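Sharing a chain and its predicted structure for anyone who wants a worked example. Both blocks are below, sequence first, C-alpha cells second.
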Amino acid sequence: MAELRALLFDLGYTGVATLLNSGNAVFCAPTGTPLEHSATIAAAISSRLKVEVPVIVKSARELEAIISENPIDAAVHQHSSFLVAFTQDTKALSGLAAMESLVVPPEKFAVGKHAAYLLCAAGILESEAAESLLGKAGKPATTRNWATVLKLQALAGERDA
C-alpha cells in the first residue's frame, strides 16, 4: 500500500490515504473524470509496479449515491457478507442482473443505478451468487464488503473536511 500511495502522489493526487491492505485508496484530484483517473492509475500501476489490475475510480459523490441507493437492509453483523459490486461503466451493471437466478433465499440481490448489491446471508463462501460475482460473471466489476464501503466513505469525508 505504501507503493500505491507513492504512485498516486507521483501522479499529482493529493490527500492520498489507503485502507488497510485492501487495494483501496482515497485521494483528491482538482481536475479530470473518474474514467480518466482510472486509465491513468491503471497505466501507472502497469508500468511502475508491473501489475495488470483493473482500476475503478468513484468520486465522493458517486460513493454517496452507491451508499444511499442501497436497497438491502443488512444488519451490522452482516456487513462482512454484504457485497457491493462497483463497475467503472454503469452499463456493465446490467450484465450482472443474470446472477439473479443464482440467488437462494435468504440471500438478497439488487442492481442499482450505480452498483450491484448481494447479501450472502449464510456467508460468502456458501453462496453460488457470490462465487459468480467474484469470478467470471463479475469480470467488469470489483467487489467490496459493506464494512469496507463505509470505511471508504469515512476516509472520503475526511478529505472533504
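Comments welcome. The first strand starts at residue 14 and ends at 19.
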